[in-house]
Design a protein that fits this description.
CATH class of the largest domain: Alpha Beta
Radius of gyration: 25 Å
Structural class: alpha/beta
Strand order of the largest sheet: 2-3-4-5-6-7-8-9
Number of strands: 22
Largest sheet: 8 strands, parallel
CATH superfamily of the largest domain: Glycosidases
Distance between the termini: 28 Å
Number of helices: 14
CATH architecture of the largest domain: Alpha-Beta Barrel
Shape: globular
Helix content: 25-40%
């Protein structure tokens, strides 16, 4: 990871010596590389989708508050008949709630985000962090802080640093639940850092705070579902040029700009694009909706926008909201689903990863000859008993070969378990992990293998049934992974 960041740093320096066209042509692939080297497959797929759609339209988005995580998103749908694609959530507490209330609110946000993801939408989360060690009140989010005081929070060994880690760890609990549920998150912490209205704002060492969180979450907590969104305010009389606070390509996936008062200058769009040098750019927050015609004409690189909570109605009429959501340049959730389906159906080199395992079924016990059935199985969790797997397959004396890739959530040693009736063999990355090619009645076998979070490991499983009951189940367990059947979301089809 350090070597890759060093390479990115060198290329950033080199880019200043060449024109943008040459830079983007030579290093586009590198810039599309996620900030997190171990980024999990669902988040990689989202990143790939955003790049694939860039320039073709803008993804619509709506923010909701911690206390009411679905309110304005559904009000938008009621007014327009269309859902936004992007659902914005809040992870920070600002109303001086008790810890129990905050936990319940964050869980409600988590539950809503899982539902939204399953419905085909995109999840983004903002984090209005109170000054660590203070009450979770707005006054402690917007508190002034000197450079000297700020430095204590990013200096290991201080009491302030310990309090910062404790606050980060509380929020990480819910991000981990989303990680475990396979939900990618556009994670947007410490926004508007180029203004002076938050405790982290206008700090010369802001980038160290960003890097601290990045390493705490990706390293210590193993959160590999996060796409990192750096979101300054659009340059105006109240804030600095955003470039002075940019953490760099190695810790940012999306550069987003918060734009208010209808300040949709082409220069904002162009300067952010130049700063990211090919990275995704977006409108992180807005009050007044942008004119879709303007975006389509001269600001095509914005990947998405997010209207802030109640400002949807305070700053826009119903007619303006409807016109924006129904414009051909603006993606709603239904249109986004069609686009993603088309991406998945594209040529192999352009398509995203597809879930499942390829199952080849043979009417013999030796995997010999031509399979009588080839299909995609979600995972390996079958108890056929005395029935056949399919009308094309015999109930006895059959065999199956499953092939694909397996993607874990944690980087650690895993125990792989099989429960089968009869024989079974399991290979991961070409290594034989379980070898029990014998007649048996539901015996559990096991083997160990080291897996890397977010990485696609080659998997092959072979199974045969002699006579009587038929069963094939594949499970896993690790220090962080409770023993259980390996879920469908961990499997992906083989490379073409």
């Amino acid at each position: 990871m350090a070597e890759q960041r060093h390479l990115r740093s060198m290329l950033d320096s080199a880019s200043r010596l060449v024109g943008d066209a040459a830079w983007q042509a030579s290093f586009r692939e590198l810039l599309m590389t996620p900030a997190d080297d171990a980024l999990a497959v669902p988040a990689r797929n989202l990143l790939a989708a955003l790049y694939a759609l860039q320039g073709s339209g803008i993804i619509s988005g709506q923010h909701d508050y911690l206390e009411s995580p679905d309110e304005y998103t559904y009000k938008l749908m009621n007014v327009t008949g269309k859902h936004a694609v992007l659902h914005g959530y809040e992870m920070g507490a600002i109303n001086n709630q008790t810890e129990a209330v905050i936990a319940a609110q964050r869980q409600a946000v988590t539950d809503s985000a899982i539902r939204w993801h399953k419905a085909g939408g995109i999840v983004t989360m903002t984090y209005h962090a109170n000054l660590p060690g203070t009450a979770p009140a707005w006054s402690n989010v917007s508190r002034g802080l000197s450079e000297e005081e700020f430095a204590k929070y990013i200096t290991p060994g201080t009491g302030e640093h310990a309090k910062l880690l404790a606050e980060l760890d509380k929020a990480a609990v819910y991000l981990k639940r989303l990680n475990d549920a396979g939900v990618p998150v556009l994670w947007r912490p410490y926004h508007e850092m180029n203004g002076g209205w938050f405790w982290w704002g206008r700090k010369s060492r802001f980038r160290e705070l960003w890097q601290l969180m990045f390493e705490r979450y990706t390293g210590h907590h193993g959160l590999h579902n996060l796409l990192w969104v750096w979101s300054p305010n659009a340059k105006n009389q109240w804030c600095d040029d955003p470039a002075g606070y940019y953490p760099g390509a190695g810790a940012v996936d999306v550069l987003a700009l918060d734009i208010y008062e209808g300040d949709y200058k082409n220069s904002h769009h162009d300067q952010l694009w130049d700063l990211g040098r090919g990275k995704l750019i977006a409108i992180g927050e807005n009050g007044e909706l942008p004119a879709a015609a303007l975006l389509a004409k001269s600001q095509k690189k914005w990947s998405y926008q997010m209207t802030w909570g109640k400002l949807l109605f305070e700053k826009n009429s119903n007619a303006v909201i409807k016109a924006f959501m129904l414009d051909s340049f603006v993606y709603n959730r239904d249109e986004y689903a069609v686009k993603i389906a088309n991406l998945n159906a594209g040529p192999p080199e352009d398509s995203m990863l597809v879930s499942g395992l390829t199952g080849e079924y043979f009417n013999n016990m030796t995997l010999g000859g031509t399979p009588v059935l080839v299909r995609t199985d979600a995972n390996i969790n079958f108890s056929w008993q005395q029935a056949a797997p399919d009308p094309a397959v015999s109930a006895n004396a059959f065999s199956v070969r499953w092939s694909g890739r397996i993607c874990p959530s944690y980087s650690e040693s895993y125990t792989i378990y099989s429960s089968s009736d009869d024989g079974i063999r399991v290979w991961i990355d070409g290594a034989l992990v379980i070898d029990s090619w014998i007649k048996q009645s539901g015996q559990e076998r096991k083997g160990t293998v080291t897996l890397t979070a977010g990485r696609l490991h080659a998997l092959k499983v072979e199974y045969y049934e002699n006579a009587g009951d038929a069963k094939a189940v594949l499970m896993w367990e690790s220090a962080s992974q409770t023993k259980g059947v390996i879920p469908a979301e961990a499997f992906y089809l083989p490379e073409e």
